[in-house]
Amino acid sequence: MSGDDHFLALVLINILGTAGIVVWHVQGSSRPNGRLIVQILFFAAMSLVLCFGGIAPHQPDAIYSEGLAALLAKSALILWWTHLAWTVIGFVHIYVRLNRKPREAHLILDMAVAAIYLGVALSVMGFVFDMPIATLVTTSGVVAVILGLALQNTLGDVFSGIALTLGKAYAIGDWVQLGDGTAGRVTETNWRSTNLLTAANNIVVLPNSMLARQGLTSLSRPDETHQIALRVRFAPTQRPRMVEEVMRSVLQASTRIVKDPPPAVALKAIDAIAIEVELQFRVTSVAMSTPAKNEIIDLIHDQCRASGLALAIPAASLSFLPAAT
Predict the structure, then answer these.
(1) Where are the domains of the chain?
(2) What pLDDT, in 10s, does the model give residues 100-146?
(3) What letter does residue 311 receive in the DSSP assignment?
(4) What is the DSSP string of 108-138?
(5) pLDDT by residue (tens digit) across 142-176?
(6) Per CATH, domain 164-218 is 2.30.30.60
(7) CA distance 165 to 107
(8) pTM for this structure?
(9) What is the CATH number of domain 226-313?
């Protein structure tokens, strides 16, 4: 192949690479499929020009070593490797989107993108600028050890976040409760921390390393329904069976609890002071716990008035009653 044809191929690759970048930005992030098509078309066109021009992307240009032609050769190869990285990253994003991966998978995506860019950067330094890759890798390893020692806590959060993501302990939107009693809905996960939105409408930011060490209970799995146990004490003026029937009617009258599986009434204890009853029912989500409890308590009040049941004196207040003489 003549030098003029080789120079023309380099110019054409630079034009295609630059045009691909411009069109890619014009497409915008709201059109990922269109962006991927643009990436594939421009990358394919650049690869065809490389092939017909007799240019090897894994070797420094052997024809032009100085001047404008050498600059065009290097920029053409850099653009080709850059478009290769973008095309691969585009396919990874489309794969994740088509397989309906959870939204927290962006941690894994970030890792894949970082690995692709690192591989392309090393390829450009080795194949385009003819730098010794082995020396660069060795130097990078020493720098990585130094940074690792200096950033132990941060790296602990990063790897804990990766472990939690791979283990699928929770997903965005799940309600979770920690070992210290903190509960909330997962709103965001990133490299360093996980954000919980509590029932008080506060954002709790938890470092991933702390989250990995604590016990965690998922309140959204295997489904969103949440079990609630509400204890009520009645004066022993009526038979326990009647108390059970009245409480069962309370649960049946409720409109804010789940009826399948059916709610239950458990007689827990009886003594001279009270009959203790536990109402066991489910709600559609943790967010419905308070409205459902409020409704049940209101219904208990109405049913007690209608059936003649009386609530027992709280056990804690018995110690304040005067002793009988």
Answers:
(1) 3-149, 164-218, 226-313
(2) 555 545 666 777 888 888 888 888 887 787 777 666 666 666 556 65
(3) B
(4) HHHHHHHHHHHHHHHHIIIIIS---HHHHHH
(5) 556 655 555 556 666 777 777 777 677 788 888 88
(6) yes
(7) 8
(8) 0.51
(9) 3.30.70.100
